[in-house]
Design goal:
There is one protein chain. The protein has helices spanning about 15-100, 110-125, 135-165, 185-190, 210-250, 250-260, 260-270, 280-295, 300-340; strands spanning about 345, 350, 405-410, 415, 435-445, 445-450. By secondary structure, the chain is mostly helical. The strands form 3 sheets. It has a two-stranded antiparallel ribbon. Helix 1 (about 15-100) crosses helix 3 (about 135-165). It is elongated. It starts with 16 loop residues before the first helix and ends in a 7-residue tail after the last strand.
């Protein structure tokens, strides 16, 4: 027997090839099982992470497209408002030109007005018919007008305050012309804040293949809308450019008209010599037109404004002249009335006097009442003398049937003829018979003095 003293040694058996194969199979089977078991759990997580990352990238693309589209819509709103306001301004300018084209000579010559009318018609043809605005555009235009009006009111208030303080007026904030505004300028008026895209993110764990397809479709739609909006902006921008160029094209004709305005101003003042101080305004306005037209950076609208001011001053001078002439004629008529007012017109018709007093006396003429041989009343005082404007003296006379007194002394009268109408009872003539013409003088007995045609003797 072997002693039991210390550990017994285990005899190691040599490893055979078959043993190696068995062990490897066990290890492989264990690893494979572990991989299979882990794969059931790991594969969905890996795929979900991939989808989430793709969704994140697509969402970023969509946000960029949507943001660009919203910006484009804001630009389009501004472009529509700008072109609409510009068109309104151009149409107003065209109306001003057409009014200038109606100006009568000598304020502007027929050649000048024909040139203005022609250039106005050409401009109208260039701008064409106005597009029909949408309801949204109409609201935006109205809002923009209100905003700009508030700016103008503020400018006027600031200018008035500066004037009161004897300081220079601050720079205006409201535009003087819509044609000078850019899209960015109008964007600030229509909407001074950039729109923001709506965030509709999906949680990473909830992203599905359908979610990714939906985002791709949204990106495509946003890009299509962006392209359409950009085309619309380009169209409005082209329209604005057309309006600006149409107005600018009128400048050469307006400048040509303006060069000879001072000459027309002289003609206006010559034809209205009684216009007083208004004539000085005409001369000054005409010189301003010529000076303005010679400026290097002048615009058509500025020249037209000065032309309109000149025309207005010329019309005012003409009216001042007419008023003065009317006042002088009225004063002359009033004076003539006080002096008696009798007159003989160029046709020989006598206008009865009212101020010398024969109609209130008792003789010296043919007035109704107590004198005048044709009167059927108290008889005829026919022979009295009368030297205007002194009151007439009593003349002789008789009953209407027996005849009036003829050429006797002023107070006693003389024997008249026995005609039924009475001696000297015929009314003075108020016109000349055929074959004669009026001399321009008259008397209270025979009436208008006449001369035979072709002679200068007799009456």
């Amino acid at each position: 027997m072997e002693p039991v003293s210390g550990p017994s040694e285990v005899q190691q058996q040599p490893t055979t090839a078959a043993g190696h194969r068995k062990r490897n199979l066990w290890i492989a089977a264990g690893v494979a099982g572990a991989l299979v078991l882990g794969g059931v759990i790991a594969t969905p997580l890996i795929l979900q992470n991939v989808r989430a990352k793709e969704y994140q990238a697509l969402s970023a693309d969509l946000a960029r497209s949507q943001s660009a589209t919203l910006e484009a819509h804001a630009d389009l709103d501004a472009a529509v408002v700008l072109s609409t306001l510009q068109r309104d301004e151009v149409q107003g300018f065209g109306k001003e030109l057409r009014e200038l084209g109606k100006t009568a000579d000598p304020i502007l010559t027929k050649k000048q007005t024909a040139s203005i009318t022609k250039t106005a018609a050409a401009m109208d043809k260039t701008i064409g018919k106005a597009p029909k605005p949408s309801d949204r555009a109409s609201k935006l235009v109205k809002s923009a007008k209100n905003s700009i009006q508030k700016m103008r009111d503020a400018d006027e208030k600031a200018a008035a305050a500066a004037k009161k303080a004897k300081k220079d007026a601050p720079a205006a904030t409201a535009p003087s012309s819509y044609l000078t505004l850019s899209l960015e300028d109008m964007r600030a008026v229509v909407n001074d804040e950039s729109p923001e895209a709506v965030d509709s993110a999906v949680a990473p764990e909830k992203v599905t293949p359908a979610t990714l397809d939906a985002v791709r479709a949204d990106i495509k739609a946003a890009n299509t809308e962006l392209s359409t909006t950009e085309d619309a902006i380009a169209s409005e921008t082209d329209r604005s450019q057309t309006y600006t160029e149409a107005v600018a094209a009128t400048l050469p004709d307006l400048v040509a008209v303006s060069e000879s305005v001072p000459k027309q101003a002289k003609a206006v003042n010559a034809a209205a010599p009684k216009s007083g101080d208004a004539a000085k305004v005409v001369t000054t306005s005409a010189a301003t037109v010529q000076k303005t037209a010679a400026e290097k950076a002048v615009t058509s609208q500025r020249v037209a404004t000065k032309l309109s001011a000149y025309v207005a001053s010329a019309k005012k001078a003409q009216q001042a002249h007419a008023d003065q002439v009317a006042a002088e004629e009225a004063a002359a008529a009033a004076t003539a009335g006080q002096m008696g007012g009798e007159s003989v017109s160029e046709t020989g018709t006598y206008t009865e006097e009212t101020g010398y007093g024969w109609d209130t006396g008792t003789g010296g003429g043919w007035a109704p009442g107590t004198g005048g041989g044709t009167d059927a009343g108290a008889g005829g005082g026919g022979g009295g003398t009368w030297t205007p404007p002194a009151p007439p003296t009593d003349g002789g006379g008789g009953a209407p049937s027996t005849g009036g007194g003829g050429g006797g002394a002023p107070s006693t009268g003389g024997d008249g003829g026995g005609a039924p109408a009475g001696g000297g009872g015929s009314a003075p003539a108020t016109s000349c018979p055929p074959g004669t013409y009026p001399t321009g003088s008259w008397d209270n007995i025979t009436g208008v003095h006449c001369l035979a045609n072709g002679t200068d003797e007799g009456w």
